[in-house]
Amino acid sequence: IRVVMITGDTKPTAEAIAREIGIFPEGESLQGRSFTGAEFFALSAEKRRELLTEHRHSMVFSRTEPRDKQELVKILRTAGEVPAMTGDGVNDAPALAAADVGIAVGSGTDVAIETADVVLMKSSLQDVVTALHLSRVAMRRIRINFVWAFIYNVVGIPLAAGVLYPGLHIQFPPMFAGAAMALSSVSVVCSSLLLRLYQPPKPLPLARGTTVEPADPRAYGRFDSATDSEGTEVLSLRASQCSQPERANDPEAPLQAAPVASMRV
Question: What is the pTM of this model?
């Protein structure tokens, strides 16, 4: 499985997260593997197809818009790939619909959940790995059941038809045929019930060998700190806002911010 990260965040942030979660090992060059949406779609169609399909490297795309995500998925599909898209927001819905398998995070928006083929019950991306692993285990069990049923019928049908009677004068009464049919169904059901013993794969350790600690919201630089009349510190969240014409003319234009929420700490 090849991992391609597509985000609307800035290029340095996207590359830092990609290294943190192990898409790119520390010290590995990102030349030709990290693009903004504007940089990638400025290339020719042949070059875009070559980068996405022929080299089969993990890649990171930053500052992408919803239509960019959808177009990236379409390029992979037309090249014969089977893309699975994971997202949680309104801007992910077009790509979720375009992918062969759309996976929505349970805490995502209603649009993403309605568009996706698979909805994760939790908000952990580890469940994406579990879903893929469980699907393979289930398909393997289905194939085993098919093989068992095929062998059972190949042997049972000639016996029920009297293949042994001309030479050995052995003939099975109808009650044995009915019992054999019931046994066939019971064996397949019991084989399928083995899926109840399924154990999900264990998460891999963090790339840097560190543990995840609760983050201080001040560390993200998206809050303005103030003190109210009672002496309680209040953090005002500032959401990024930028008009579409400015982004179209200059993808690297600074985003304007406006306070939209606050919390007490």
Answer: 0.65
